[in-house]
Amino acid sequence: MDPYDSQVSTSRRRTSNLKDYFVGATPLQKRLESVRRQSSFFPSPPRRKIPQCTQLQEEIDPRKVAFLLHKQWTVYSLTPLYKFSYSNFKEYSRLLSAFIAAERQKGLAVEVGEDFNIKVIFSTLVGVRGTQRDPEAFLVQILSKSQSSREHGEGRVLWTGWFCCVFGESLLETVSEDFTCLPLFLANGAESNTSLIGGWFQKTFDCCFSPLAISAFNLSWMAAMWTACKMDHYMATTEFFWSVPCSPQSLDISYAIHPEDAKALWDSVHKTPGEVTQEEVDLFMDCLYSHFHRHFKIHLSATRLVRVSTSVASAHTDGKIKILCHKYLIGVLAYMTELAIFQIE
Amino acid sequence: MSVLRPMDKLPDLNRATVLLVGTQDALLQKLAESMLQEQCASELRVHLANSLPLPSNVNRPRIDLIVFVINLHSQYSLRNVEECLSHVDSSFFLGKVCFLATGAGRESHCSVHQNTVIKLAHTYRSPLLFCDLEVESFRVTMAQRLVRMLQICAGHVPGISAVNLLSLLRRSDSPPSKEL
Predict the structure, then answer these.
(1) How far apart are CA B11 and CA A93, in angstroms?
(2) Beta-strand runs (E) in chain A
(3) Which of A3, A125, B28, B65 gives A137 a disulfide partner, CB atoms 3.0 to 4.6 angstroms apart?
(4) ipTM of the predicted structure?
(5) Rounded to two decimals, what is the model's pTM?
(6) Which residues contact A2 (CB under 8 A, 6 or more apart)?
(7) How far A321 CA lies from chain B's nearest CA (Å)?
């Protein structure tokens, strides 16, 4: 590099530092700024991008993606992990397996590194992120080592969980270097295992898990965004579930649409290319409501949307999601990350 | 009489009338009961309506305050209120209308975003109150507050008018209205 160039870059850096100083350089000040921005008058982002294929996505190992798809995941939001390191995976698996063994035989001492009937594997999910700045996603698997499986080499999977962050800039910029931001955590397996393993993470990395509930409002956004995705072939029908708030028993209404019809409806309400706006989401849902009202004289708008399933993914208000389409994995995760970050903040 | 006007009737002596508009009868009923249990020097009248316009063949007293109840769990209740607003005379919005959003406590049940109702209330320059009407203690507090507002709107509190109250209830961080 010639001296002229380096001089320019240092002077530029100095001005940006100065700016940081005035705007609020410490993470705490940045945090405060971001909270202020959120509580200002109309904070909701009125438009979002339609999920697209990203460059990074091509790095993903197809075997690992196949493992993430077609499974029901329970979603949690997670505060940043303190002093987490990607180079310590071996150590973490040793400690976590010892922890699980200790919890299982309460009262009896266990030694770290002893051979237990379970095996814990930590591994990174290369490419499951939105930008280069997002930290790498990682996967935790708990395998049982029974007698028969030992011969085959692979154990039976007892529990799986993964941590990821897709387009999490708003959180990343406000957290200091000691923390790793992976706000979205997805688990598949017995709930008792989730809370056990969650407990270990909470103690080890000083973080906090909380179940991510998806409101009816957000479900309608998902319905619109996932309908908007271009598909080569549709794997499942587009289906909605509404719950009617009536006592003593609740009544559920299911509404299935041919995915091509849903797409045609979306195309007729959609105006801004590549983006989804709040008005379009409202209009899309209103069309479905008025169609239903014409045939059955029921105002679906007075009921609560509890589940949406499309060829891209399906989501339930309890915080359970299933991703079906490999192409839009990142897009689905980006919205889930946004919701998780919103919940943390 | 398709449009409600605040001043087209003479007031009755020491009587204050509120109109609660909303799609959920049970909630409105409960709120009305809580309001009537409040100790109050004025004679309270609570009218309930699912929607506007009100039928014209009934003789009713002058309405001093309209409360639009929006259930955040139901898009329908929001649409209904939006339609009702066109049947209200603009002079009502000089402090004699307020919006009450219920159900914000159960985030996962919400089909209407809070910002949508904030925007609505801002468009009509009227105060927006949040209260979970399902919870009894919250409802009682809200009833107390509404009764107090009603007394002011009916002109039963010396020294303060509905317009006064409106300016006091304005959100401090809301941008100044450009059109006014």
Answers:
(1) 77
(2) 47-49, 72-78, 81-82, 118-125, 137-144, 156-164, 179-180, 184-189, 209-211, 238-244, 251-257, 275-277, 304-309, 313-316, 320-323
(3) A125
(4) 0.76
(5) 0.81
(6) none
(7) 15
